[in-house]
What we know:
The structure is a homodimer. Chain A is an alpha/beta fold. The first copy, chain A, has two domains: 113 residues, NAD(P)-binding Rossmann-like Domain (Rossmann fold, 3-Layer(aba) Sandwich); 151 residues, Dihydrodipicolinate Reductase, domain 2, CATH 3.30.360. In chain A, the strands form two sheets. Chain A has a nine-stranded mixed beta sheet with strand order 14-13-12-11-7-10-9-8-15. In chain A, strands 3-2-1-4-5-6 form a six-stranded parallel beta sheet, with helices on both faces. The N and C termini of chain A lie far apart (50 Å). The interface between A and B is medium-sized, with 31 and 31 residues.
Amino acid sequence: MDPIRIAIVxxxxxxxxxxxxxxxxxxxxxxxxxxxxxxHGPEGIPHFASLEDLIENGPAVDAVALCTPxxxxxxxxALALAKGMHVFLEKPPGATLAEVAALESRANKVGxxxxxxxxxxxxxxxxxxxxxxxxxxxxxxxIIWREDVRVxxxxxxxIWEPGGLGVFDPGINALSIATHIxxxxxxxxxxxxxxxxxRAAPIAADIEFRDTAGAxxxxxxxxxxxxxxxxxxxxxxxxxxxxxxxxGAVLTLPTGTEHNEDMEYPGLYARxxxxxRGGRSDADIAPLRLVADAFLRGNxxxxxxxxx
Amino acid sequence: MDPIRIAIVxxxxxxxxxxxxxxxxxxxxxxxxxxxxxxHGPEGIPHFASLEDLIENGPAVDAVALCTPxxxxxxxxALALAKGMHVFLEKPPGATLAEVAALESRANKVGxxxxxxxxxxxxxxxxxxxxxxxxxxxxxxxIIWREDVRVxxxxxxxIWEPGGLGVFDPGINALSIATHIxxxxxxxxxxxxxxxxxRAAPIAADIEFRDTAGAxxxxxxxxxxxxxxxxxxxxxxxxxxxxxxxxGAVLTLPTGTEHNEDMEYPGLYARxxxxxRGGRSDADIAPLRLVADAFLRGNxxxxxxxxx
Lengths: 308, 308
């Protein structure tokens, strides 16, 4: 089979660190072009200032990976789908739920693949965690995602603006894992969002979810964590405790701990190739829907101003 | 065919004014019981303090209509579905999007009907508006929903609490019509929510949506309107202007104005009976999804405190 000719749109840090190496490492793809008004891609790969420019003047491409901020992703995705291209969306898949639903329906109409990617679902411990939990009864779960925003998002003003997700930017990774590994759907019961006095988005959140069998899932998100950072999901079951730590990389079961190699972006691109070859889409919005529910239902508290 | 034996759960104003007369007026249904810890239903109809009590001690019922506030609706719906009953949800269908999705999936599993009702979609002008627009190209639309909260929601503190929708409580009716009559999907681009200094929910909102062909849909919601009230949707098309006014009751087309009889709740119950007879569900969450997107993305402004 000929490789899928793919263009990267948005050549920022995530594209350079993750997407380009994953594409280069997967023979199902060939990197056909890069698109960005700001940054060039790798030497020798045709580069365009805009997707329109690529479409008019560039080489033929079968697919695009959209690595731009979510606010501008809809227009790019709609244009690519209108040209029959397959679309890989970085997380979160859009700025709103309704635009992702519109893209999914458009993709189905034109017969193209839309892939809403959630990279944390491809962390090493996630697939075995899901398999283990599928045969257990979940009694309760805790999600503890506490990191230092000054380390991970230094000076990123947009993340605090309306439409930026604040602490849900990392928190949505936790939700993408939890919605994938927990065997029953869950939904929000109560939420408190802590908003710095000088910002629009939360710096911390305390959420209680419940699954359809009544089990409680508690989520503790905090961007003010100095010292050791926590990206842990702990699930109590009828067969003992499961712990996923380091953002899904390390899995501890009652039988011991597994450390496996990080395969997040290679895993995403393998999945994207499978979806394209199978003529299917995967636009699961469950993690973003839970975040929207938190904004819809949450109790907002104003806390100390945050300065970078 | 035997009538569908239905119980009303939550015997408040909406149940007495709308649901009970609509059920009594439709021979497909028979009112089998009422449930409320607070209020009795009509004379001669068996009454129970809780749904559990009805299930244990009451007559057999095939369906329930949930007329309680949305915050407690999930548990009632899940219990009813677990017993194989069909479920009619007042609007909005739940307190969160995820819980409605969980109910829909449960209903499909047990083979029961779940109906997320949007009464404004059955206002007299809505069906002909939808039919007329299906053959036109929409250039732009305006939704103007301005009413006096002191008249329509006097002293209803819960509507201002976190999880109460504020001005989106009436605004979601407008969105239920717009998502039904406009031929293309639309999604939020920008939103400003005005929150009174002493409340948690918006008293006004200014939203710009865009449809998938690029047409702008502007929504103006305000709960501070004294004097004449506005519940209007105006759509500019290639064949002239459509105006739905009085919440969908009155339709004005380039050819003239139609006044028809209000059939909202009779229309809802006719639809519910059809869904049950056809073994189908209708749990469209598009209106609530747009509201969640507004809370997720909206720019919040603090405005003057509101006192009843």
